[in-house]
Amino acid sequence: MKFSPLKLLANTLFFLQMSNTSQRVRETNQSVTSDFTLTGLFNHSGPHLALFSLVAAIFTMGLLGNAVLIFLIHTDARLHTPMYFLLSQLSLLDVGFPLVTIPKMAADFLQEEGAISFGGCAAQMFFLMLIGVSEGVLLSLISYDRYIAVCHPLHYPVLMRHQVCLLMVGTSWLSGVLVASIQTSITLHFPYCASHTVDHFFCELPALLKLSCADTSAYELALSVSGVLILLLPLSLVATSYSHVLGTVLHMHSAEARHKAFTTCSSHITVVGLFYEAAVFMYMVPGTYHTPQQDNVVSLFYSLITPTLNPLIYSLRNREVQMALVKILFRTGFRSKR
Fold first, then answer.
1. Are 51 and 72 in contact (CB under 8 A)?
2. Where are the membrane-spanning stretches (predicted)?
């Protein structure tokens, strides 16, 4: 048999290519089949037990507050307005935010374990991003609603008719689904062949990227740049809307109307500020500039504290909502007496 150097070289290259392919397949299989471990927020010391009880109480209050607000808006005809329809969607998102993270964190704490499957981690990351992006877009659309109500009140019934409100809500949800699908699929495409311990109390995109054994620097840069579109564009709409609102409010002749408009808009601005500050910190500031402990605190803030405060800041202190709540309580008490 005649020896052929070219054939030997071809066989060698084929063997190396197959070896690299097998290695990539092993890495992918390992990343797909392996579970992750969440470090959690608390240990079982005395102070941490107290903090865990506080988190559980805030979680319950947040769910109750948002559920009550959704119920009132649905049942009271006086709250069937564009603003309260949008706020009911915000409350729905605020119910979902803590439900995705807090029950899993509580179960891990009580069972003293932090394992989460690859699929569970993917689902957690997807729904968190879906809710977060949808809420950011919805907050900007709520600011537009306030701009029309204050600056163009005569055109409000036309510009904010029910079809427009449905389009706004659909846009916010669709934006969330689109961004979450893209970001989650890209993140899970990376191989996770090193440590599977997530230094976080839930699966969040920045925390997962730190575990990848591939070079994610280009994607992290793209993530920061995409934050300009996902976060700063809605935030610019909020700033523009409320700057026009403020200018109109300052020129109102009626002190009562000026006070009502200023109170409502200041509440909205507070909620927007709380939400966007946390989101910008997590997704626009590169991970090298903040520690895992800071990530845990900020994530707890926007996934639990902000959704709990939203119904209090936005609606439950409004006179219309208070009257609807009193009406429901009076009906309930009257029926129980009968």
1. no
2. 48-72, 84-102, 122-144, 164-182, 221-240, 261-285, 297-316
